[in-house]
From TrEMBL:
UniProt keyword annotation of Transcription present: yes
Name of this protein: LysR family transcriptional regulator
Family: Belongs to the LysR transcriptional regulatory family.
Signal peptide interval: none
Sequence ranges assigned to domain HTH lysR-type in this UniProt record: 2-59
TM region(s), chain numbering: none
Length: 297
């Protein structure tokens, strides 16, 4: 008899392409993944993967098993979601995914307030820009900035929130230096693989051809505060920081609309409903801040 847990490990390696990545996704150690794969191969009497320098590649037998494994995973997720949706207790785990900036600079006080109101709900905040699959119950609620509503998956239920605007910001000290003629061209601080948006070039300050690159939101904002250059930020981040100012000659730019997203039966769970209704009210209060209308230089 095949153990469903072995199938989960098989799927993780097949999807991630490496044992290490699968172990990180499943939150187990490397040896556990290898042991589970070996156990499945022994029960099926076939080798599932071929190890190559580029990673783990499915064998012909592995390819045949993959389709059935995906079907098993889908059925398991559907069952778990349906049972979860029947849960009307205000107790248990609630997983919320959102970008690090939204978590750190806007919503953490609201998460704290919700946790205080409902001490029996165990909250897990998945602060990441990486996509999370709600269908597979990787999270219960996703807070996302959506530019085009038509791109939302039809199987997700959404509560529409306020529109989110951004602007170009610079450290106030660096702005003073530029106005005093001490800096002619200013670097653009690039986050990850982003470039300079066209609307970011519309300001009065010329942009240097030499950029400054960072890989995470915390480093990005720290570099801006240190006067290394200028960059685009959501208004709820830039306007709330006393060390920063909008770059002269630039306007506001709409990034998209905030949505609270849930999947199928999950949204019927009482703790999910309580959270989405609570946060929807809080987001409406933040509408001026999110639109860049709550502060002026």
């Amino acid at each position: 008899m095949i153990d469903w847990d072995d199938i989960r490990y098989f799927l993780a390696v097949a999807r991630e392409g490496s044992v290490r990545a699968a172990a990180e996704r499943l939150e187990v150690n490397h040896s556990t993944v290898l042991r589970r794969i070996a156990q499945l191969e022994e029960r099926l009497g076939a080798q599932m993967f071929e190890k190559r320098p580029s990673g783990y590649r499915l064998t012909n037998a592995g390819e045949e098993i993959l389709e059935f494994a995906e079907q098993m995973a889908a059925s398991s997720n559907q069952l778990a979601t349906r049972v979860f949706g029947r849960d009307q207790s205000v107790r248990g785990l609630l997983r919320v995914t959102l970008s690090p900036m939204l978590a750190t600079h806007l919503l953490m006080p609201d998460f704290a307030a919700f946790a205080a109101l409902h001490p029996d709900i165990e909250m897990e905040i998945l602060s990441s820009d990486e996509p999370v699959n709600l269908t597979n119950r990787e999270a219960d609620v996703a807070i996302r900035v959506v530019y085009d509503r038509s791109t939302l998956p039809p199987n997700l239920h959404g509560l529409k929130g306020p529109e989110l605007f951004g602007a170009v910001y610079i450290a106030r000290e660096l702005l003073a230096d530029w106005r005093a003629g001490m800096a002619e061209r200013i670097r653009w601080i690039v986050k990850k693989f982003d470039g300079i948006p066209d609307w970011g070039r519309e300001g009065d300050i010329p942009i240097s051809e030499i950029s400054f690159k960072t890989i995470d939101a915390g480093t990005h904002i720290a570099a801006l505060r240190q006067g290394i250059g200028m960059t685009a930020l959501p208004c709820f981040v830039g306007d709330a920081d006393p060390l920063l100012a909008k770059v002269p000659g630039t306007g506001l730019h709409m990034h998209g609309t905030l949505w609270l997203l849930t999947y199928g039966e999950t949204r019927k769970t009482k703790r999910v409903r309580l959270f989405t209704e609570f946060l929807s009210r809080r987001l409406s209060v933040y509408a001026p801040l999110l639109a860049g209308l709550a502060a002026s230089d």
